[in-house]
Every structure is written in C-alpha cells, then in structure tokens.
Amino acid sequence: MTAQPLEQVPHAFDELDLVRGVLWNRRAVVCLDFDGTLAPIVDDPVAARPAAGASGAVSRLAGHCPVVVISGRDLVDVRERLGVAQLWYAGSHGLEIAGPDGEHHVHEQAVDVAPSLDAIESALAGRLDGIDGVGLERKRFSVSVHHRAVAEDDVDAVTSAVDEVVAEHTDLRVVEGRELREIRPALEWDKGAAVTWILERVGLGDDAFPVYAGDDVTDEDALEVVRGAGLGIVVRNRERLDTPTAAHLAVDDPDQLCDLLDMISELFDEWAELPT
Ligand SMILES: [Mg+2]
After folding, report:
1. φ/ψ (deg, to 5) at 121
2. How far is the CA of 177 from the centre of ligand 1 (A)?
3. Pick from 264, 274, 223, 258: which is nearest to 244 by CA?
4. Residues 166, 195: one domain?
5. Torsion sign, CA atoms 198, 215, 267, 9
C-alpha cells in the first residue's frame, strides 16, 4: 500500500495535466461518496444538502460516463437528496445498488441480520438515554451512533456502550466513522467491494477506468481499489489530516470537488469535438 498522510496529497487543481493524462482515451466510471464529498458535513445528518453546484456537475458528467453515488445512507435517502435520475446509487455502503435503467441488487446476507439490528437499536436506545447530544440513526442495514454533538467527557460512555451491546451479536461489527460509530453486518463488504461490483455491472469490462472521490476513513477501501488502476480523490477535512489516504489527489471541500467534476466534463466535451 502506498498511502500517504492526507496533508501531503497534492491538490487536484495543481495537477490538472495529470487528470487530463490519465482520463484521455479511457472509459471512466466516476464513483462519488455523498456526505462530506458532494454535500458539506452538517451537525444534523438529516439536514445535509448537496453543495450548490453538485446536481448540475453530476448531471453534466453523467452525460459522458457512468456516475455512481455511494453512501452509508439508505439508497432511497441518498437518491432523494441528490435527485438526479441519470446516476447509479449505492446505499448502505453498496449493500443495495440501483442503476438508472432499473437495475437493482441487494446483498442477501445483509437482509438476514435485520433481527440483530432491531435488537441493538432498542438496547442502545436504553443505554444512551440521558446522554445529551447523542444521535441514534437506524438505517436499512445499519445503526449509526453520532457523537459530534456529545460533550467530550461523555464520548467514552457512548463508544463503550456501543461496543458492549454489539459484542453480543456475532453477525454485526462496529466501524468507526467521522464522529460516529456505525454498526453494520459483519460481512466482507465495504465501499471497495461495492466499487468492484459496480464496475462489473456498468458493462465497460476491463476498459473501465474508475475515478473515486470520498472524504472519510470508510472511503479508503474504495480508494485502495482505484489506487493501482484508476484515479482517487480525497476531500480534505480537519478531523483526519494526519491519517493516511490511498488517494492520488485532494480537494479542500465539496464545492471544489464540484468544480473539478465540471473541469472533467469540459475535458470530455473538448475530446468529443476532436476529429476521429
Ligand atoms: Mg463521506
């Protein structure tokens, strides 16, 4: 692995020749995380909205190549938030995937863990009652415990409650995210597996050139997948400046990512005009 500290990753705007060079004559498939990548992080995840230029940027890009939005959110949630019909959407970290032409896939084993998720959801509601600012979010294939708004002294109580409750369920595991702990099915499945699966599904075969953009540690599985055979972009954030990333290039925020996506669309426009 050739991961480097996030701080040392070159800015994409300084490396546009590299972007042009790697995309030239390739059949790109652009995979994008949602929260923190296409949408600024907000305290209340329910209030998250795409950056101003996001819908336009992904629509334009989808006119040139498959665009896939991959999120820890439920599929219907992320699709409604972005509302662009021409895209692929992968919810629950890719456990459920839907394409623009009605393609749909749900991971079978994920369906089987629903009773365990129900049990920990109610157990955690009891354990975390009385801790101010904690957010318990049930999704189709996971339970997220947000502690962004919890007092520093109480965070340990939240995380140990999660670990203790989950320890009773061998079919579940805990994944640490950006100021949250997420309880997911204990499957060999992550955003990297989702990207691999989607690349097979979009039908470009070995010609597919994956581009992936994400901000969080959970995106590193996908960035690893594209490290050797595609282009990885990390959206910088203060909370993980010193953590390693497998991304090739960085942008500072979702607005800059949208600008970069527009620049990529312009490259495709320019190349489409070239005589063949
Ligand atoms: Mg994210």
Report:
1. -60, -45
2. 9
3. 223
4. no
5. negative
**Domain C-terminal end among 185, 207, 224:** 185
Nearest-5° Cα angle at 45, 152 to 125: 65
Same domain for 95 and 141, yes or no, is: no
What letters, b where the CB count within 10 A reaches 16 and e where it falls short, cover 141-179? Answer: bbbbbbbbebeeebbebbbebbeebbeebeebebbebbe
Cβ count within 10 A of residue 193? 18
Question: Catalytic positions, please?
Answer: 33
Output the CA 269–ligand 1 centroid distance in Å: 29
Question: Could you tell me if 89 and 224 lie in one domain?
Answer: yes
Domain count, the chain: 2
Domain range enclosing 225: 4-107+189-273
Q: Which residues contact 17 (CB under 8 A, 6 or more apart)?
A: none
CA 64 and chain centroid, separation: 21
Mean pLDDT by 10 residues, the chain (276 residues): 83 97 94 97 89 97 96 93 94 89 85 92 94 92 92 94 94 89 89 86 79 93 92 89 90 97 97 88
Cα 94 to averaged position of ligand 1 atoms, centre (Å): 13
For residue range 152-191, list pLDDT tens digits in order.
999 999 999 999 999 999 999 998 887 889 999 998 888 8
- CA triple 260-266-271, angle to 5 deg: 130
